[in-house]
Amino acid sequence: MGAARPLEYEVFRKASRREPCPVCGKTDWCGFNSYLCSCMRVSEGAFKHIILSNGQVAHLHRLQPGRVIPDKERENVFSREAPLASIDTRDRVYRHFLRLLELYPRHKEELMRRGLSVEDIKRNGYKSIPEHVNPWIICKKLIHSGLDLAGIPGFYRAGSKYGGSYWTFNSYPGYFIPIRDTKGRIQALQRRMDDIRNGKYMLFSGHSDRGGCSCGTPAHVARPTEIKDQRVWITEGQLKADIAAAYLDAVVIGAQGATSWKPVVPVVMELGAKEVVIAYDRDQETNKEVARGKRMLVAELKKLGITVREAIWRARSKEEKGIDDALVAGLDIRVI
Ligand SMILES: [Zn+2]
Fold first, then answer.
1. What is residue 47's three-state secondary structure?
2. Of 239, 235, 250, whose CA–CA distance to 297 is shortest?
3. Which residues of 108-125 are buried (b: 16+ CB within 10 A; e: fewer)?
């Protein structure tokens, strides 16, 4: 008798050998409880797709159709993420934002060590994450210039101790790498972190629980000063694409990672490419996820009637596994 008890919120368990993912059957990466599964691999049949702060997409599946999802879970799962602003708006805000920042000498030196010229560095628009100015002051400047930070990935609202909230962003040291679309507009920002313990590269994105939003895993379009090779090259990583474009004199698409191949396909189409050259890291033979991502990308491009080739080179060391390092080292790159 009496009122129905509120539904218990059940914590998610990580897929393991003992308890594999109920949707894909794999023993890692996914999470679930008795009525919901957040599968990282199977999108078919999911009722919602969530972009995580690291850019990966989690697919939510109901394990017990008809079961009411508890409120607490509803908050977590159906978080009220700010809708992403249009690409023109994002481009305008990011351009203003980067103009307020500078590139510290140590970052400039690092980029030059990677093989970029001073002109490339200037043209591509890398800027250091500010260390001597409070992030909220920069946000205030942007707002004073009439810009709205809602829906711009990377910015979020922090609670003020006097009540209310204000716009800010994370300022862990490192530098920004603009992620551009086919028209050169800045659609998102990648960050090369100084402290690489949590990963070398982190997207400027997320905090959806605090008025921020995710940028997804957009593919970057790197352009050389002059296009001499009409083929479109595809690699993993935005900075790698920038460096490769400068050396190949070709348009290079930088996928967020080999597993984030989906956003690459519409970019290839928009560029009207007839022939593409895939130049993923040479460790793909030993990396199953990379190999799988590449296979799926190749299959998708071939379906669209695009000629797909692959660049190979003999890496003499771990430092030459990327196309950028191979080009800078002057290795012989063959297209097969
Ligand atoms: Zn799964």
1. coil
2. 235
3. beebeebbbeeebbeebb
Contact 113/44 with Cβ under 8 angstroms? no
| pTM, two decimal places | 0.75
Map out the domains of the chain with their CATH numbers: 13-77 (no CATH), 87-210 (3.90.980.10), 220-335 (3.40.1360)
Structure tokens at 321: 């596994």
pLDDT-derived band at 275, boundaries 50, 70, 90: very high
289 C-alpha to center of ligand 1: Å? Answer: 14
CA distance 112 to 110: 5
- Check: CB of residue 281 under 8 Å from CB of residue 321: yes
Residue with tokens 């909230």: 165
Can you tell me the distance from the alpha carbon of 208 to that of 157, in angstroms, rounded to the nearest whole number?
Answer: 10
Secondary structure element (H or E) that encloses residue 167, with its range: strand 165-169
Residues with C-beta atoms within 5 A of ion ligand 1? 21, 23-24, 30, 39, 41
Residue 55: which pLDDT band, with cuts at 50, 70 and 90?
low
CA of 40 to the centre of ligand 1 (A): 5
The average confidence (pLDDT) of the chain is 86
33 and 12 in contact (C-beta within 8 Å)?
yes
Q: 151, 141 in Cβ contact below 8 A?
A: no
Q: Among candidates 242, 296, 207, 224, which has minimal Cα distance to 114? A: 242
CA of 41 to the centre of ligand 1 (A): 5
